[in-house]
Specification:
Elements (H helix, E strand, L loop, with lengths): L7 H41 L5 H13 L2 H15 L9 H37 L8 H23 L2
Length: 162
Amino acid sequence: MAGSPVSQSEASLLKAARDRRRARTNWLNTFRTLFIIGAIVVMRQVAHAGSSPTNLRKIGSWIHDRVPGWLWTALKGAVKPIKGPLHRLGLSQVELVAALVLVIGLAVAYALIGATWSAWDRRDMDGFFHSRVGGFGVHQAGFIAAALIALGGCVVVSILCA
């Protein structure tokens, strides 16, 4: 490559880094899309649980039995303002707490997907600047694990609220 600002090995490294970045971004987009679809299904299930709130009541009771009293009081206080606007769903305060915890869980799962992907991206970018591109690492495994846990959580919650 006469006159090229980069050598052949540098050009090869740049191409490999670009291909890995494209693959990482595709993984992120795929899991985010699947998660958003799963979260919509979960929210639909929670909203429709009002007609048969047994499962939400069970989830709420399970949460009540496992969290400290102060946290349960805080959760009840958090749903108090939305109880009025959501009265047509026919959900009790315990069921609203269950729905709130499920929504918080979804938000945390979504944040985990982004955080683990960012760690993976930073690791690969650091590797690029040290002329190391490629390989399967702990950061990639962490992202895949977080994404699968988040998607699995959507499936489990959808089943529980069905």
